[in-house]
Amino acid sequence: MNVPVLNLRGITKSFGSVSALESFNLAAYEGEVHALVGDNGAGKSTAIKIITGLHQADEGVVEVLGSPLPHRRSPASLSEHGISVVYQDLALVECLDIATNLSLGGLPRRFGMLDRRRMHKDAQTVLGDLKVRVTDVSTAVGLLSGGQRQIIAIARAVRLNKPLLLLDEPTAALGVQETAHVGEIVDQLKADGKTIVCISHDLEFVFQHADRISVLRLGRTVASRRTEDTTRAEIVGLITGAIRPDEGAVA
Amino acid sequence: MPQLRKVFARQEVSLLFVVIAIGAATALKSSAFLTTSNIQQVFIASVSIFVMGCGTALLVIGGGLDFSVGATFTLGGLLTAQLMVHSVPWPLAILVGLIACVFVGVANFAIITYLHVPPIIATLGSFYVLTGITTVMTNGLDVLPLPQGFQTLAQDKFLGIPNTVVFAIVVGVLTWFVLERMPFGINVRALGGNRDAALGNGLAVAWLDVALYGTAALTGGAAGVMYAAQVGSGQVNAGGSSSTLTVITAVLIGGVSLLGGLGSIQGVAMGAVLLSLINNALVLTQIPPTLNTIIIGSILICAVALDHLRRERLYRKR
Asked: What is the CATH number of the domain that holds B216?
């Protein structure tokens, strides 16, 4: 098999005496949608924070395309490593408009000044590619609904055009139609050859769009299945512990 | 951003109406109000507040706060004056005075960022320390005489407009340009609007912070230097706590949100003129000046309540 785009091996992390992750493993390959599921407190958030560099792992390595990431790195340096992230709290600025939010961190300049026209054009292009109908990219993000914000947050990550996309609970608090739209975007990104790692509670969404599902329980990867080889019942059993973990999955 | 612009416009327009209403009422009561010299006086009196307000507004929009600005104001004027008295040429004296003020801003930043002291406490602390330093520096005495060349800087007129007012307009236009037209200004709004988002999007948060605290201190010091030139001496009691509070009041009345992200320089200009106008109107209409603080306090509360309403209308809950 080729080199995984994202590879986490033997990640261990504890906060004081509380162990959040114990030898957590995850390998996501090119053009794959890899879902990470687990109950509250299973360590999903810790896992994503270790990938983004917000936390440092006590042990283990994070590799992107075969090369290990530096142990200490800032969330700001993520895109240099080929990763873009959609945070669960979305990290949008409410008082700024859609176009500005999409360009934040890399505002287009012209003679040192903000190139508003190009910023708006870029925004329209990105949203158009994602088939998002927005009447006006100069609408303040604070005026948008939760679903619209989610789409904008994803659009921003897509705009960075990195090989690896990290989605943290992309469908939390979304309506049916909005969830479907996020799903379409995920499918399209996958078709474009992107690797997507998606943390989610939403098993329906996961079974519809993921190629592989990894189950996290009490800080350990208890199983990793191809979506077509498993059932919802099995995944739920693995999440709750009703089904015993795979041999060897527990280190 | 049509929606936002509409709201911003309303905030400034409502302030403009307040200014016109107070002006009209005063003009009815006193024939001295609508004279060129009196109107000029209103603007001259608002200049210091506005210049300090420009840097302070940027900082507050960026999510910070500086209570030391009144003391930085004193430091700027006093240090420049003292250097001149010790026969340092005035351009050099001004430069050194302003650099010292920027240094105060950087110190504020360092205390907040590296010692993790909340901005309000860190800058309140530096306010007291600075006040002490300026008093010790001059033995509590005003510093004079100042060279004529320095005084004309503020006392001359340019095309019939007092130099201080011209200076304030230049500072105001520059600040407006930086805030509304430069990527830096957008990043400042992002920082104040959602600090985590700014971090997550890879903005150089520490640089923005140090630039903001430095700028707030710089405009504070610049206003102090200008004031010294205007009155012809470096005064120990030029700034102080009342000065700090007046600036923050003007900035908040002008529609800058303490929660960060929102605000405009036009609003700050209106806030500064309004405060100066109220003082002027009370004197001319012979209303006891003791009422001044009551009125200003009430306006401040109304303005911030309005800001809250504005935010509620702007941002629906997710």
From this structure: 1.10.3470
Cα–Cα distance for residue pair B278/A151, rounded to 1 Å: 49
Q: Does A157 touch chain B (CB under 8 A)?
A: no
Spell out the residues 6+ positions from residue A224 whose beta carbon is closer than 8 angstroms to its own: A25, A26, A212, A213, A214, A215, A246, A249
- Using a CB–CB cutoff of 8 Å, tell me whether A91 touches chain B: yes
What are the tens digits of pLDDT across the range A32-88? 999 999 888 788 888 888 888 888 888 888 888 888 888 777 767 777 888 888 887
Amino acid making up residue A233: A
In whole angstroms, give the CA distance from residue B216 to residue B244. 12
Q: What pTM was computed for the model?
A: 0.86
Measured in degrees and rounded to the nearest 5, phi and psi for residue A22 equal: -130, 110
pLDDT tens track for B189-219: 999 999 988 988 888 899 999 999 999 999 9
In terms of residues, how long is chain B? 318
Task: Give the closest of A95, A109, A139 to B262, CB-based.
Answer: A95
The number of distinct structural domains making up chain B is 1
Question: Which regions of chain A does DSSP assign to beta strands (E)?
Answer: 6-15, 18-28, 33-38, 59-64, 67-68, 83-86, 109-110, 113-114, 164-168, 195-199, 212-217, 220-226
What is the count of residue pairs from A and B with beta carbons less than 8 Å apart? 94
Asked whether residue B229 is domain-assigned, the answer is yes
Interface test with A, best of B174, B196, B201, B307 (most A CBs within 10 A): B201
Tell me if B5 is assigned to some domain.
no
> Which residues span the domain enclosing B162?
14-310
Best CA proximity match to A163, nearest among A193, A130, A125: A193
Asked if A136 has any chain B CB less than 8 Å from its own CB, the reply is yes
B contact test, residue of A74, A83, A84, A104 with most B CBs within 10 A: A104
In a domain, B8, yes or no: no
Question: Closest to A93 (Cβ–Cβ): which among B2, B193, B202?
Answer: B193
Which residues in chain B are closer than 8 Å to A143, comparing Cβ atoms?
A: 3, 314-316
A117 — contact with chain B (CB < 8 Å)?
A: no
Instruction: Tell me the C-alpha distance between A171 and A189, whole Å.
Output: 16
Nearest-neighbour CA in chain B from A79: distance (Å): 9
Sign of CA dihedral A226, A232, A235, A237: negative
The full set of domains in chain A, from first to last, is 1-82+163-251 (3.40.50.300), 90-161 (no CATH)
- Nearest CA to CA, how far is B251 from chain A (Å)? 18
How far is B227 from B219, CA to CA, in rounded Å?
12
Q: Cα torsion for B46, B52, B54, B56, to the nearest 10°?
A: -130
B317 touches chain A (CB under 8 A): no
- Alpha helices, H only, B30-118: 36-61, 69-85, 90-114
Tell me, yes or no, whether B149 lies in a domain: yes
